[in-house]
Amino acid sequence: MPTILVTPLSGIHDAIRAHRPSHMVTLLSPEHMIGTPEGIAAANHLRIGMNDVADAAASEDPPSERHIDELIAFGRAWDARTPMLVHCWAGVSRSMAAAYILLNLKLGPWSESDIAQAMRRRAPHAYPNPLMVKLADRALGRDGRMVVATQGIGRGRIVDEGECVEFPLAPGQL
């Protein structure tokens, strides 16, 4: 089944062994960027260097339109026949935002709230990065629905690190 997996950095090797994803998105600060792990083709590994901030003025490397455009292009090129692994440092904010963006891309308009609610059910710790969501909402032409939907699920349970979470790429399975 097509799936988007979200995990912290510490869980990527276990997730690759257990789920055998074909594609991977790494969202880490530029100074902490990793190489492509064994089991993932380099061409199928998108590495985005950004800090986890909600205000662009708070960092030298905030999420930007360019980052979101790269993520969307990567998501469009993925055929979704095999899982995609998305990770950041803790598996809570940047990676959850990226998964939310990719799910919205694949499931289409008017699914924003359903996806956010499913994210909360499957990942009580999820707190999608608000700046990434805002930029993606604009890029995907969602008229604020992605922002409102993620605001609606709140901050979530505060944790140091999330766990591996699976998001099936089918509305009825989400």
Could you walk me through the main structural features you see in this protein, from its secondary elements to its overall organization?
The model has no long low-confidence stretch (mean pLDDT 96). The protein is globular and about 40 Å long. The chain has one domain (3-168): Protein-Tyrosine Phosphatase, Chain A, CATH 3.90.190.10. The protein has 174 residues and is an alpha/beta fold. The N and C termini lie close together (12 Å). The chain has helices at residues 12-19, 65-77, 94-107, 112-122, 130-139, 145-152, and strands at residues 3-8, 23-28, 45-49, 84-88, 165-168. Strands 3-2-4-1-5 form a 5-stranded mixed sheet, with helices on both faces. It has 6 helices and 5 strands, in the order E-H-E-E-H-E-H-H-H-H-E. The relative contact order is 0.22.
The CATH homologous superfamily is named Protein tyrosine phosphatase superfamily
N-to-C series of helices and strands: EHEEHEHHHHE
Largest sheet: 5 strands, mixed
In the CATH scheme, the class would be Alpha Beta
- Per the CATH scheme, the topology name is Protein-Tyrosine Phosphatase, Chain A
Short description:
The protein is an alpha/beta fold and 174 residues long.
Task: Supply database-style keywords.
alpha/beta; five-stranded mixed sheet; Protein-Tyrosine Phosphatase, Chain A; 5 strands; 174 residues; 6 helices
